[in-house]
Design a protein that fits this description.
98 residues, alpha+beta, four-stranded mixed beta sheet
Length: 98
């Protein structure tokens, strides 16, 4: 599944729009996760929370028969009384390519 923030996939033609798809993940934030996130930031890598949200969105696009998701927007929100939870949401347009 091609996932891009751009409105098109270079060199490919969009032949059908399948609809808007999204993925959401809410996870708890704590000292240990914060520590590992800092290490990941220093040595490189990707956040598991973002990866899960992107995977969920891609699965929904695949169920619609899409080859790609274009115009992807990634958003996050800190939730809870003590800001102890992180919600990541991603959305985009599922498309069929030539």
């Amino acid at each position: 599944m091609i996932v891009t923030t751009t409105p098109a996939v270079e060199g490919r033609k969009i032949v059908a729009y399948k609809g808007i798809v999204f993925g959401e993940v809410v996870s708890g934030v704590n000292f240990i996760k914060d520590m590992f996130s800092s290490i990941t930031d220093m040595i490189g890598g990707r956040s598991g929370t973002y990866e899960k949200a992107l995977a969920e969105m891609s699965e929904r696009a695949a169920k619609l028969g899409a080859d790609a998701v274009v115009g992807v927007d990634v958003d996050y929100e800190v939730l809870g009384e003590t800001n102890g939870m992180l919600m990541v949401s991603v959305s985009g347009t599922a498309v069929k390519l030539d």
